[in-house]
Design goal:
The complex is a heterodimer. Chain A has a single domain, classed as Rossmann fold (3-Layer(aba) Sandwich), CATH 3.40.50. Chain A has a 7-stranded mixed sheet, with helices on both faces. In chain A, strands 6-5-7-10 form a 4-stranded mixed sheet. In chain A, strands 8-9 form a two-stranded antiparallel sheet. Chain A starts with a strand and ends in a 7-residue tail after the last helix. Chain A has helices at about 15-20, 45-55, 55-65, 75-80, 165-180, and strands at about 1-5, 25-30, 35-40, 70-75, 85, 90, 100-105, 110-115, 120-125, 130, 135-140, 145-150, 150-155. Chain A is about 25% helix and about 30% strand. Chain A is an alpha/beta fold. By secondary structure, chain B is of the alpha/beta class. Chain B has one domain (about 5-230): TIM Barrel, CATH 3.20.20. Chain B has 10 helices and 11 strands. In chain B, the strands form 2 sheets. In chain B, strands 3, 4, 5, 6, 7, 8, 9, 10 and 11 form a 9-stranded mixed sheet that branches. A two-stranded antiparallel sheet of chain B has the order 1-2. In chain B, helix 1 (about 20-30) packs parallel to helix 2 (about 50-60) and helix 6 (about 140-150) packs parallel to helix 7 (about 170-180). The chains are: A alpha/beta, B alpha/beta. Chain B: Pfam families: His_biosynth. Chain B: Its EC number is 4.3.2.10. Chain B: Keywords: Amino-acid biosynthesis, Histidine biosynthesis, Lyase. Chain B: Pathway: Amino-acid biosynthesis; L-histidine biosynthesis; L-histidine from 5-phospho-alpha-D-ribose 1-diphosphate: step 5/9. Chain B: This is imidazole glycerol-phosphate synthase.
Chain lengths: ~180, ~240
């Protein structure tokens, strides 16, 4: 299993790499040829989009999605797949998924901490923006926690920072990749 | 931390060596800690950078959120720590010296990765690991930090630090009421009731002295809190 973690020089990609290595994945830089490309998510939308474009990752991810190859987006990595985000005064995103990211309106913002998702497990969240999309597949406190569309799977929470439940979530993702159920040929 | 070891004092004085950061980090993670915070308390004073290599080794052991602070003065400092495996950086003295740093970091890293640590004594802010007084009021500084882009406030009461007599509820309550970002209460935890009390007003409670001699205490504290009706996640 070859996994490429997109390094767009925004924040902590190392925790995703550590989590993947623990699950036996082999890390590669080859976003086109890998079995799973991960778009991690720390940073702000505008600076992340700029960095993606600088490195040609926007084109690579669009191509990968068009080819039906598995992509996992985490936190901001989920939001960047949408059409736009309210962050940084309005940011145009990759536009691979319908919907947009809006600034959270209730509770303390950023929403930081452990929260339960529909599947019953408790995961770690750290975000000020959230997705509004018809492609949502799981929620947490009414906030979109997971998105699926074609070969894309997005998690608003950080499975790589969510202890044992997070490791189980990532293991399931790798199983979907292995069995081709996340591929759209 | 100081000198690559975990140290703990009382009211910021008399730091004692209590263990190896890699071992303790792993022990707390294994026992259900929700998050790990490393503060290199001598970094500012000794004008040296936080130990990036140590952060790398600790991060290797963890699968929970990891906040690192101490001596961070620039975006490059913060970036190096995040790339070593920290999820958030905690800034304190450098933010007091140049508040614009908070905004710069928030713009680059996102607010959720920027913790502003405030050390308060008698409601006033102290800087440089509690060695230097300022004229700032803790509540006012917390509000300014939030406005400038802080994603969390880590509020340590120097008066309560290491005493195990309970959190400084007055300053914690005042700061939590004044800001709308999450507040982490720190300093003074001695038993489960103290933690429960802090969690009524703050969004997280930091534990240090109470755990360092006996990491196993974390397991029993979580169970006691659960029995008191405090929502504690199932870490298994």
């Amino acid at each position: 299993m070859k996994v490429a973690v997109c390094d767009y020089r925004a924040g902590n990609i190392r925790s995703v790499e550590i989590a993947m290595r623990r699950l036996g994945a082999e890390l590669t830089d080859d976003v086109d040829g890998c079995d799973l490309a991960i778009l991690p998510g720390v940073g702000s939308a505008a600076s992340a989009m700029d960095a993606l474009k600088d490195q040609g990752l926007d084109v690579a991810l669009k191509q990968r999605f068009a080819d039906g190859k598995p992509i996992l987006g985490i936190c901001l990595g989920l939001q960047l797949m949408l059409q736009s985000s309210e962050e940084d005064g309005g940011t145009e995103c990759l536009g691979l998924l319908p919907g947009h990211a809006y600034r959270l309106r209730e509770g303390r913002i950023p929403r930081i901490g452990w929260a339960q998702v529909d599947d019953g497990a408790t995961y770690y969240f750290a975000h000020s923006y959230a997705a509004e999309t018809p492609k949502a597949t799981a929620w947490s406190d009414g906030i979109v926690a997971e998105v699926r569309d074609g070969s894309f799977l997005g998690a608003q929470f950080h499975p790589e920072k969510s202890g044992a439940p997070g490791a189980r979530y990532l293991a399931k993702v790798l199983e979907e990749v292995r069995s081709k159920s996340l591929s759209r040929a | 931390m100081a000198g690559g070891r975990v140290v703990k004092g009382i009211k910021f004085q008399g730091l004692r060596d209590v263990g190896d950061p890699v071992d303790l980090g792993a022990a707390y993670s294994d026992r259900g800690a929700d998050e790990l915070v490393f503060l290199d308390v001598k970094a500012t004073l000794e004008e040296r950078d936080t130990l990036v290599g140590l952060v790398r080794r600790v991060a290797e052991q963890l699968s929970i959120p990891f906040t690192v602070g101490g001596g961070i003065r620039t975006i490059a400092d913060a970036d190096a720590l995040l790339r070593a495996g920290a999820d958030k950086v905690s800034i304190n003295s450098a933010a007091l010296a140049r508040p614009r740093l908070i905004t710069e970091l928030a713009e680059k890293l996102g607010s959720q990765a920027v913790v502003v640590a405030i050390d308060a004594e008698g409601g006033r802010v102290k800087t440089r690991a509690g060695t230097t007084e300022t004229t700032l009021d803790a509540v006012e500084w917390a509000k300014e930090a939030e406005e400038r882009g802080a994603g969390e406030i880590l509020l340590t009461s120097i008066d309560a630090d290491g005493t195990r007599e309970g959190y400084d509820m007055a300053v914690t309550r005042a700061v939590a009421a004044a800001v709308s970002v999450p507040v982490i209460a720190s300093g003074g935890a001695g038993d489960a009731s103290h933690i429960a009390e802090a969690l009524e007003v703050a969004q997280a409670a930091l534990l240090a002295s109470i755990l360092h001699e006996d990491p196993e205490r974390l397991t029993s504290l979580r169970e006691e809190l659960r029995q008191m009706g405090v929502k504690i996640r199932d870490a298994a």
